Structures are given as structure tokens and as C-alpha cells.
Amino acid sequence: MSDVGNPSPPRVAVVGLGQMGAGIARNLNAAGLLRAVFDIDTSAAERAGLNDALQSSDLTDLFEAADVALFAVPGTAQISRALAAIKIPAGRTIIDVTTSDPDQSRALSQELAAQGVGYVDAAMTGGAAGADAGTLTLMVGGDADIIARCAPVFDAIADRVFHLGPTGSGHAMKLVHNMILHSSFLATCEGLKLAERAGLDASLAVDVLNAGNARSFVTDTRFPRDILSGTMQARSTIANLEKDLGLAVAFSETLDAQHPIASLTRSILATAVETGRKDTDFSWLYSLYDDLIKDMEAGK
């Protein structure tokens, strides 16, 4: 039987096995697509529950084993630096799932295109729980043909994929998404602190919010699951939120867009970082909120 029109599934690698990358890699492995992983921590594959044989010694080794490399690292700048040191075989594809500046996405895409290498910015939302479950939502920018070739990868890790336009569009949408999400989270912290001061039960207040027009992911999932439960495991740090808001504010400024709420949110998060809480799980922002505002107003 001819295989024309029925191409072989891509051989996929994952670079970065942190909170997001580990879950992504496990789902790709379950789908039979994973061929290699790389992390500067050589024990990361084992911690992620993956076969040690998948661990590549370096990125050159990784690109020998895989057609598609998905980078789950801090940002596009780190990807650019890592790739600048190696020769990538033509025909490979990079999937960038970071939260990054769209200008960096476009610059990297152009550099890779000159080498015959494809690039897709596929920013993600759904958190580490979504990465574990394979239910992420992806915000994708790039060439439609390249994105189509990545479809089996996306199918293994996401429930919904939005192609938003040319390269950089996915990262632009992610900055908009996180600007709204993180500002909403701190607004909810502020409102529930007021509810507590008024003698109201925070859990019951969240139930009311979820029955009314103030309902959001923050009230429906984040507070009940990660905060009011006492778990305090949102699985991302305050520093990550501050980085996201910094990118969103800078992006707004390049487009001459208004951003007072995002700037205030960033200032609160920056205060948390500057007062030694950068590695704290961001679920603790609710407990810390009053002190953070006092510190910010005091100029600490």
C-alpha cells in the first residue's frame, strides 16, 4: 500500500523538563511520538518518569533523533542562544511554547528559515495540570503548512489549538492572556481580602462569585483547588508572573497601548520579587497580599 498522503508521524523531542515540559513529554511519549529529551539537569528525565535512554547528551544529538523539537524553557531568548551554538539539519521544526516577546519570535523564525528550519510560536495555557493531562490550549503563530505538520504533536498535548496569524501572533496573544489573567488574580485576592475583613467566609464568597457575573478561572478553579484547599500549589512562581507582566507592559508600550492596570499588577509582583519571594509559589500571593501592598506603598 502506498504511503502517499499518509506521512509518517513526526519524531519529537522536548527540551526543558520542568513543570510544563515534563507533562508534555509524558503525553508525547504515551502517543508514541517522543524520541529524545534534553535538560541541563541530567536527572530530569528520570524524575519525569521517562526512560533514561531518551536523554540526549546535547542538542546536536537531539536533532539527530528528532524531526520536531519542542522547547519548554523560560523564553525565546534562551532558545536563540542555545540554537546559535549548533548546526540544525535542514527540514527540522522548532515549536516554541514559551511566553515571550513577539519580536523575538519573528527574529528567531527568520534566522531559522535561512537555514531551512521551520518555526512555530505555540504559547500555551492550562498550567502544569493541563500539561500533565494533555489538555492545554495553544495559541499558535506561523506558516499554515508548518503548523499542519505539527498537528500530531498538538493533538497529543492540547485540547484546543488556535492559529492566530503569522509568526509572533501566538506569543502576542499569550501576553494579552496573561495580562488579563494575572491582573484578575490579584483583583480577586483584593476582593476576597475585603470580604474577610467584612466578616464573610472566603469559601462562601467564592461560591457567590461563581454563581454570579464575577466568575472566572481564578474563582472557579484556582482559589478552590490551589488556595482555599490549603494545597498552595499553583505550580508556578511569583517570579514567572512578574516576568509575564513585564513582557506584557513592554509589549503594550511598543504599540502605544494603555496599560495602567497591568502596570499596577506588575508593581505588586515586583515588590514580592524584591522582598525575597521570587521563588514562592504564586498561590501564596493571597496570604501575602496585605503585606505586599504595605511594602509597595513603603517603597520597599
How would you characterize this protein structure?
The chain is α/β, with parallel strands linked by helices. It has two domains: 12-166, Rossmann fold; 172-297, N-(1-d-carboxylethyl)-l-norvaline Dehydrogenase, domain 2 (Orthogonal Bundle). 54% of the residues lie in helices and 13% in strands. The chain has 14 helices and seven strands. A seven-stranded mixed beta sheet has the order 2-1-3-4-5-6-7, with helices on both faces. α1 (19-30) packs parallel to α6. The relative contact order is 0.09.
Secondary structure blueprint with pairings:
Blueprint: E1 12-15, H1 19-30, E2 34-38, H2 44-47, H3 59-65, E3 68-71, H4 76-84, E4 93-96, H5 102-113, E5 118-125, H6 127-133, E6 136-141, H7 144-149, H8 151-157, E7 158-165, H9 169-197, H10 202-211, H11 217-227, H12 238-254, H13 260-277, H14 285-297
Parallel strand pairs: 1-2, 1-3, 3-4, 4-5, 6-7
Antiparallel strand pairs: 5-6
Helix pairs in contact: 1-6, 9-12, 9-13, 9-14, 10-11, 12-13, 13-14
